[in-house]
C-alpha cells in the first residue's frame, strides 16, 4: 500500500542528473522530499537498484535493496550494492515513509553508469597535426589576427560497420582542446566547449553519451570537430605567452562502445586509421574569436559513404601522464537566448545590435545571400562610445571578432563553435543588405547549473541589484568561476570566488560545479602548501601560483561555503590534507601570529575607494578567519584534537591582532570600513571591544556618506551592519545611487556587476582600459543580504544544506514588501513579508524534512496570528517567546502566514545613523553606452 504523504523527486547520483560515467565505486545518492502537510518529514527510505529498468519496475533481480532504513537522510546516501562493472549502468528509485510511518509511492527511475577506465578505451590521442597550407598573397582584407596566430580547427572522421542489432551504445570522448562530436550526421549531445578547462598536465575530464538512438545497423560514420580551446589557444593575460600554454596542437581521444542484443560488443576507438582535414572552421580561439569560411564546407563529411580519400591521415599525439577522469560537473550549454532590443548604424555599413543585457556567449546571425567576396565581421563590446560605436579598449588583447565568409549567392546562418565573448553590443559589417532586428540572437553560454533562488521586492533598485548579481554569476560560471569573460583574462581567481561563494551557492546549485573547481585549486597548491591566486594556473603565469591574503585563503573558505550550502561531508574529507598544508605554511612563515611574511602579490582590499586598509591587518584577519573555519571543519570531521589546535591558534592570532591594531575603546589604529568588517568577521575582538568597533564602523560609513570598501570588504558591509543592529544604515547603502554605490552603476545603465565602482562616471568617462570589466561578480555578494535580510530567507549555519531555516526579515519603511525563494538540495523554500494597512504579514514555506525559526517584528506574542486564528493554537506552530523586539516562532514543514499589528512605533527623528538616500533617479541620458 502506498498512501503516504511523501515521495522523492530530483534523484541525483554524485550530485548529477543521470551521469553515465561515475568513477566512485559507492556513489552518493540524493533526492528531495516532496509532499503536502504541515510538519511532514521523511521517517524512512528504501532504495532499489537494478541492472535493467524493467527489472527495477518489477522489483526482480535487484542488485541492491536497502530495505526500509529509518532515517531522514536525503542528501548523501552511499550506494551499498556491488559495484557495477566498468561501463555498465544501474537504474534506481527511492520510496519514502512519512512522519506517520506511511509509505509513499516509488519515485521515477534514475540512472547512472560506471566509468570506463582509460586502459579499456584502446584509443590513442589523434589530431590534425600539420598546419601547413598553400601560401596565398594577401587579399586586401584588414589584418586578421586569428589567421596570423594559426589557431586552426580540424575535422576528424572514421567509418565503421555494425553487423548485429544494438542494445545500447555509449560514446566516451575528451580532448586536449575542445571538441564537438557527430555521429551519422547528427550532433552528439548539446554540450559546448567540452571538456572545459583543467590543468591538462594533471587531470583531463571526459564525458559519456548515450548514442543508442544514433547508431544503425550497417555503415556508420563518427566525426569530431576539434579546436584549440584552453589547451592550445590564448589563455590569461600574459603578453609574453598568450597561447599554447599546455601544447601547440589539440588532440582528441574517443571510444565508442556498442553492446549488442546477443551480448557481444563492437568498439570503435580513435587510432591511426582516422582521417583529418582543416574544414570550414579556418581559425578559432576563445579570446580572439572565430573565422568560418562556408566555401570550405564538405557536406556529408560526418555521414556514411563520404569519400575522405583527399583527407590526410590523422597524426597520433603523445599520450599523457595526466589522470583521465569522468567530468564530475555539469557541461557547458546554451542556457538562454536574448533578442535584440535596438539596432542602429553609427557609421556607414556598420550595424550595432543592442541585446539589452550584458551577457556571455555568442551570437547566431542570419546572413542573406550576397555576391562573391562577401566577408561579414562581428565585433563585440560591453559598452558604447557617445557616438554609438563600440567601446573595446577594455578588452585589452582579446580581439573578440567573429568572421563569416558565405558561399557566393547563398544565405548563411552563422554561429561560432569554439569561442565565446562577454558583450551587450554586436557591431556587424560586410552585410550585403541592411539587417533586420531579428536577424541576430544572443546565445547565452554557461555551465548548466540549475538556478536555485529568486528575489523580488517593491523597490526597483534592489531588484535590479539582484538581477545584475545573478547575470554576473551566470556569465562567470563557464567551466570554472571566472573573474570576467570579455577581456584577455577569464581566470578562476580565488578571492572573487570566496567573497561570492555564499551568494553563488544560493543563486545556483553549485554542488557539483564548485567541487570540480576545487580539484583545480588543490592541483595548483604548491609543494610547500601555498594555495594559488587563480586555479588553474596557466603554466607560464607562475606569478599567480602563490596566493595573496584573501586569495589563497579561498582554498579554505570555499570548501566550507560548499559544505554549508549542500551538506556533502566528502568534500571536506577530500580537502582536509590540503587545508592542513596551507595552515602549516602560514604558521611556519609567521611565528609571531601576525601575518607579515609570504604575502606574495598582496592585493589588499582590491579596488577600495578612499581607504587603504593596512595589509598586515587584512592578512592577519584572514588568517584568523581560516583558523576559525578550520575549527568548524575539524568538528564536522570529528577531529577533536585538530579542533582544539585550531581553536588555540585562533585565540593566539586574536591576541596578536588586538595588541597590534586595536585601541582600548575598540577602534582601529588605522581605521577603515574593511578593517572593522574583517575584525568582526574574524571574531578576533573580545566582547568588550565589539561595541566600540561597531560604533566606529557606523561612524566611518556616515562620515564618508557611503562605502569605501573593495572586493574583500563590500560583501561583508550590509550583512554585518544588519547583524549588529543597523538594518537602516545597510538599506541606506543598498539604496544609494551616488558614486560609489551599487546604484551608481545601475543609474548609468548597468545590467551586470561592474569590476570597479568607477568603471564609468559622468565626470571621468571610462576608467583605465587596463582593468575595467563591466561583468565581474565580486561586488554582487550583496545579493546574499537581499535574500537573507531584506526578504528574510536565511538559514541556521549549524545545520548544513538549509536543514533549518532562519526567517528574520529586516523591515524598512521604504519598502512595501519583499519575497525570496530558495530551491536548494532539500527542495523549495520561501519567505517574504508585506505591509498592508495596519498589519504586517510574514509568509514562510518550509520543505519536508526541514524546520524553521521565524523572528517576527513585535513585542506581544498574544497579538500574533497565523492564518485566521491565534498563532499560539495553530497547527504546527510553537510560539516560544521574545528575542528583543521580535516574536520567536518554531515551525516544521508547510506554508504559514503570520500577521501582527503594524506599523510599529517609528524611530524618533535622528535616532539612527544615516547617510541619506536621494529620491530614485531615472537613468541619465546616454547611459546605454555604459552597461
Describe the SSE topology.
Blueprint: E1 6-13, E2 28-35, E3 44-50, H1 53-58, E4 62-65, E5 77-78, E6 89-97, E7 110-113, E8 126-127, H2 145-148, E9 154-162, E10 166-176, E11 178-183, E12 186-187, E13 203-210, E14 218-227, H3 229-232, E15 251-260, E16 265-269, E17 275-277, E18 281-285, E19 289-293, E20 312-313, E21 315-316, E22 323-326, E23 332-338, E24 342-347, E25 350-367, E26 376-381, E27 383-384, E28 390-391, E29 401-405, E30 412-414, E31 421-429, E32 440-447, E33 453-457, H4 460-475, E34 477-478, E35 480-481, H5 494-507, H6 513-524, H7 554-566, H8 569-589, H9 615-636, H10 640-661, H11 673-681, H12 690-704, H13 711-723, H14 727-735, H15 742-747, E36 760-761, E37 765-766, H16 782-790, E38 793-795, E39 804-807, E40 817-824, E41 827-836, E42 839-846, E43 851-857, E44 865-866, E45 869-870, E46 877-883, E47 886-891, E48 894-901
Parallel strand pairs: 13-22, 19-29, 39-43
Antiparallel strand pairs: 1-2, 2-5, 3-4, 3-6, 6-7, 8-21, 9-14, 9-17, 10-13, 10-15, 11-12, 11-14, 15-16, 17-20, 18-19, 23-32, 24-25, 25-30, 25-31, 25-32, 26-29, 26-31, 27-28, 33-40, 34-35, 36-37, 38-39, 40-41, 41-42, 42-48, 43-47, 44-45, 44-48, 46-47
Helix pairs in contact: 5-7, 6-7, 7-8, 8-9, 9-10, 9-11, 11-12, 11-13, 13-14, 13-16
